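Task: sequence in, structure out. Protein: Acyl-peptide hydrolase.
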Amino acid sequence: MTYPMNRSILLILLALSPLVSVAQTPVKKRPIKSSDIYRLQSLSDPQISPDGKWVTYGLSTVDTTKDKRNSDLWMVSWDGKETVQLTNTPEGESRARFSPDGKYISFVSARQGATKGQIWLMDRRGGEAKKLTDLKTDLEEYVWSPDGKKIAMVLRDPDYADSAKTKVRKPYVLDRYHFKADVKGYLEKGSVHLYVYDVASKKLDTLTTGNYDETSPTWSPDGSQLAFVSNRTEDPDRNQNTDIYVIDAKKGATMKQLTTWPGSDNNPEWSPDGKRIAYTRSTASGNFLMYDQPVLAVISRDGGEPTLLSKALDRPVRNPRWAKDGQTIGVLVQDDRQTYVGQYTLDGKLAKVASGNRVFTELEPVASGSWLTLMSDPQTPGELYAIESGAPRRLTHVHDAFLAPLELATVEGFTSKSKDGAQVSNVLYKPANAAANKKMPTIFFIHGGPVAQDEFNFDLTRQLLAAGGYAVVAVNYRGSNGRGLDFTKAIYADWGNKEVLDILGATDYVVEKGIADPDRLGIGGWSYGGILTNYTIATDTRFKAAASGAGSSLQLSMYGIDQYTNQYETELGAPWKNTDKWLKLSYPFLKADRIKTPTLFMAGEKDFNVPTAGSEQMFQALRSLGIPTQLIIYPGQFHGISVPSYQKDRIDRYLQWFDKYLKPKTM
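Result:
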């Protein structure tokens, strides 16, 4: 039965109708811009509750007044319907973990003026968090025991160099082979060791001591033992020969070595029944393992010969996680511009659980064969997803507001052929609404590593460059992973050769296809991407502008001033024994007079990974030669630029530099 509408109600609806239509008007899209860096948030470290009903995660946001990022903790229900913010303080919180009974959430924070991060405990039902620990040294890792009564910790040995009453630090006293590292700085004596903390009594027991590091602790299901990783060779600084050990979780216990592979063994994970340990093992044995890819291995808790489940795959396998039933092991597999979720049976059979032109970066098991993951695609920054029956189901919508007003570049893959016949996989970004069949100014933005790969994920830098009106090309040159071990090892002791052939092959492709304007080509990158920028402009003059970040060229001068001495001596030989090789690889500097490309050089002031000297030398060479150049040093920054305003500044300088030389001047 129906009734005629009340006249007054009808008049109200008619009066409101313009407002309704306005509310439904789609948001006008605009190109992404450098200031959007301040709006972009970042999810990390998802953890599933013991009952499988909630997920905690860290959410990093930019505090523009302090010009830094701050991390708070959030929680989302497994059905994705409820989201709860757990913390909101200026000090920041990280590494949230559920207590095994699910009643509490622990996290790490340097609250209330603390100089060291402490573990805090929060009742899930609400209320203020309470400080659990009073540690005097740096907490590197922590993990709850299965019964929730103890916490295994990795703590760094105390540093007494700053204990003087004055604020003048004592001199660094260095006698290690590996004496410096990015972010950490100069490395004196001091290791990280295992401890067990009793939650009730707050007593801290020492499990390991000495001059060796012990990391990656994980409890056996019965809580009696810890598996961990350590390098117990005579001088761990000179190799990467880590092994898996087990130790009873009590003071005075003796550790037992399980693995004996002369390469690296890492990431131990106990099976649910406690009988086996899954881990990743390097493919190669030997001293330095830069050009390598991890293999999934399983070994008995008593040791013996391991089973190499992914040996035949010839792809990097990471993040091993046992399924709850203990019958399969979930992994992340890097494969030709993708990272997919795979699942291995104990007899070595691999099934793809979730894949496609996207990238999965976290993996945690959930009951009933489901998985928790963090996933990104070219149009969406990382969000949390549940994987059920192979289908991702989105849990968080953190980036909806960020994306709502933006028009983004279209992203597609293509394969190019290099001069020597190599097939190379690449990713192309085209500006939103780019005119069809119109040649565009094009920037080749090269990834670092070199053992990494450009993938079908959300790439902020390339999106911002594309929004500036450029086609942007990402080249997975030889040395990249995701294409097999031989492809990765192809550049061993031969830098700046095959990689440049691959970059130029991709250049030829986009020019021949009418995508790139051959008279408006630019190139840039950071770290090994900066190094390859230098190699490329010293080889070919077709690029009209370049931006080399955190790069080097006079490789001979890098020995002893960066953190890679071990790699150098293994791969290239000592400079005094193999000088010709070092000089050959230094050709961008030694033949700098071949460079005609205006180049912007950039570096972090405190970078010990690729120190500023690498950029300074090339800047000085081009300045002396009269080639347009500029040097930008970011104060207090390490290899990665972390200050938000500096991140924005870097993008702005990229675009200003490329616009100057690649965009036609308007009348």
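Residues 1-23 have pLDDT under 50 and may be disordered.
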